[in-house]
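Cross-posted from the bioinformatics board.
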Amino acid sequence: MTRTRFLLAATVLATLPFLSCSKSEDEGKLSVGFLLKSKGNQYFVTCEKGARAAAEELDIDLRVDGPISADPAKQNEIVENWITDGLDVIVAACENKDSISTALRKAQEAGIKVVTYDADAQSDVRSFFANQATAKGIGEKLIDTTAELIGGEGEYAIITGTLTSANLNEWIAHLKERQAAEYPAMKLLDVRPCDDNKDKAQQEATNLLSAHPNLKAIISVCSPGVPGAAEAVKQAGKSGDVKVVGLGLPSENRAYVKEGVTQAVILWSPEDLGYLAVQAGVALKKGELEKGAESFTVGKLGELKIEGDSIILATPMTFTKENIDDFDF
Amino acid sequence: MPFGMMKGTWWKIDLAQHEVVLLLVIVVEILLFQILGRNFLTGGNVSNVFRHSVEIGLLALAMTPVVLSGGIDLSVGSMVGLCAVVFGILVKSLGFDPWVAAALAIGCGAAGGWLNGVLVAGFKLPPLIVTLGTFSLFRGLAEALTKGSESYSGFSESFLALGNSEIAGIPIQALVFLPIAFLIWFLVHRTTYGRSLRVIGFAEEGAVYAGLPVKRNVGAAYMMAGAVAGLAAVILVARLGEARANAGTGYELLAITAVVLGGVSIFGGTGNVAGTLLGWIALAILNNGLTRISDYEIFGEKVSSVARELSGLLTGLLLLTALAMGIFTKMLAVRRARKQALPNPTSS
């Protein structure tokens, strides 16, 4: 036993010289932490790409981290570790609004500038929210794309998540408003809920197709509805005759888009979102962006509008047969 | 030696060596992360290591008596979720004072633990099956209570301080953790209750014939595990500022890992609280240290946070290595004992 004890003491003593030295940071550079909701999600991997591009442009020290799968507790731990490291800026996509706010509040108290993107925290724990798209932008983009596909006239139907979903209803309201004003020859037949379920969406779409032989287009405002509607149109043998448009991830819809069943998938560019969020965080730290500003001009994105404390990332983008292979999220 | 139990038996040395091995592992970890990571050995980070793992530490401590008695409790992680939700409902929906609600949440944990105890000790059902059942039951109850989506937040500053404040650089949680650790150590190593658990773990039948209150003692171990899980839930909610049904998911396995890594035999009978604590510390340092080397440059190439992904892999390796070393040292000891022609170790 004395020998093991001696060995132990020797090892502990041997470690002591190392205890005082600490890893040196990149001197003089701003350090920014970029928090993902989860690392396994291609959407956030694409956000990260944009964040890295911004970091390169701004010559900052960017640290990217996130839970392996969405986990609010892990997000808090990452933020707390960053506070310990004394980062200058934290840019966060929040898995859970309330729990992350506890950690972000501490960060702000420690003098760290906080910007959120994709999913917001409580509004008092961050300076700005890089908002991917407004309800108006989404609704108008959906109806504009559809109108272009069917020549501005004919019957269409909408598949939504649930009839009580607040954000989806807001998008639909803007969509309807735009259609009434710009495309009076189009007619909305029905809004059907799919409970965020692909199979249910397929069933609803099948019902719509058989009930309305003159149906020209199906718009899905929820992501499971897009492949669901596409499958229904495909099985009914109406590929191309009935257009499918919707909000979703390119990866979920790639097969249908390439087959020509789904004409357009709409989403904002996650890469631009990551880019914008990091740019905003750094501008905030440098004092180039202040509370109350009405617009924010940023590198390749140009001038973006600020509503309240949300920086709006222009209009969503459209994925079609031609470009869908360029996106892997 | 606080580690050894019965003097002059061959496995005493084996156990002592296990702790030495663990200490060495911890030292190596600290060295490695200090060299490779950023700001690893700073006051703030040491406090983070503790704060981020204290819930697992509590569960591991409470798991130790259960495992010593030859049982296992898979339900503690789910219990954290249930107690967190109960706490949230009490404070936010029913307007309870957070400290009263905390006591009730711990009571809820104790009640759940009591249920485990009754099924395991009273009805003689296998602990693995019973707690697998309550693992689903408790989590399911938490999800039902919140309809799976509701969560509770906006707790008072004074309550959140429990999870987020420090006194002279020492996290407040430590003031809860240390007494609990001492209490469990005392129970296991300094009372007849602790000894009876070990006896039950070695030979339950024998313990029954020796007139030990097996049912009561085993039941109490599960009840204690439940109550401590309730406490862990309260601390977790105070740290995160939010109570939701998925709190503590997977914690039971991390706690069991710490216990087994600490040298407590999963078949019951042998092991000690100090080992559990060392196993927990080794895991806690590993988890934090890996996040410290995120975005590290290897051969001049910037690697984007490769480290965290290794956490599962390294935890597994650590556990398997520790187990293998345990068997190896045991074999060595047996061989040495034979060589020296000492009496066979069965005499213990």
